[in-house]
TrEMBL record:
It comes from Methanoculleus oceani. This is UPF0316 protein DIC75_06620. One of its GO terms (cellular component) is plasma membrane. It is a multi-pass membrane protein. Signal peptide: none annotated. The keyword Cell membrane applies. Keywords: Cell membrane, Membrane, Transmembrane, Transmembrane helix. Coiled coil: none annotated. Belongs to the UPF0316 family. The chain crosses the membrane at residues 12-34, 46-67, 73-93. Gene3D superfamilies: 3.30.70.120. InterPro entries: DUF2179, DUF5698, N-reg_PII/ATP_PRibTrfase_C, UPF0316.
Length: 199
């Protein structure tokens, strides 16, 4: 009859439902915890405390289920598996969000004119310094870019100066700066192909 909720076998509840609940609860709280740490490192003071509250609330519920079912080893496995999976998912979510800025430092031992021209034409601010390395003179390029544009900059480096050394560091805070204007259409890296046609 409608409206009657089927009774769940206590053994199924203990051996299946509770471990699954703990597993998914741990995924949620660890994923949120990973995001909270990222927000803290970005200086986002309003979001981090809210995420911290939700994270701890879910964690308390998950731990409570374990203490209520101490004799079931599956709960311990589910707790550990959820922790590991939550870390992985948290990193994936952070990569997708790609929030904040990054400093790209490029050290090249060959002519970097094409790379500089490409980056500036694509809307990136580039500071260029003369440098002297073990193998002779070179250039050091600095550019602060949005993290979602890092792949475009890396593609340009590999295309124009494939042997250049570069490093990428997170930037917690920056003022002013030059960044590409977001417009509908192809990714900024396509501009590099346009530039190369004119060579």
């Amino acid at each position: 009859m409608l409206g009657i909720v089927p009774e769940i076998d206590p053994e199924v509840f203990s051996l299946v439902i509770v471990p699954l609940f703990i597993f998914f609860a741990r995924i949620c709280d660890v994923t949120i915890g990973t995001m909270r740490i990222i927000f803290v490192s970005r200086g986002m003071k309003m979001v981090a405390p809210v995420l911290g509250f939700v994270e701890v609330f879910i964690w308390i519920i998950a731990v409570g289920q374990i203490f209520q079912n101490l004799t079931n080893p599956l709960n311990y496995f589910a707790y550990a598996a959820g922790f590991g999976t939550g870390n992985y998912i948290g990193m994936l979510v952070e990569e997708r969000l790609a929030m904040g800025l990054a400093l790209v430092r490029i050290i090249t031992q060959r002519d970097a004119t094409n790379l500089i021209d490409y980056l500036r034409a694509a809307g990136y601010g580039v500071t260029v310094l003369d440098a002297q390395g073990k193998q002779g003179p070179g250039k050091v390029l600095f550019s602060v870019v949005k993290r979602k544009n890092i792949r475009d900059v890396e593609d340009a480096i590999h295309e124009f100066n494939p042997k250049a050394f570069y490093s990428i560091e997170d930037v917690r805070r920056a003022a002013e700066g030059t960044f590409p204007v977001t417009v509908p259409g192809p990714a900024p890296f396509h501009l590099g192909r346009v530039i190369r046609k004119g060579k």
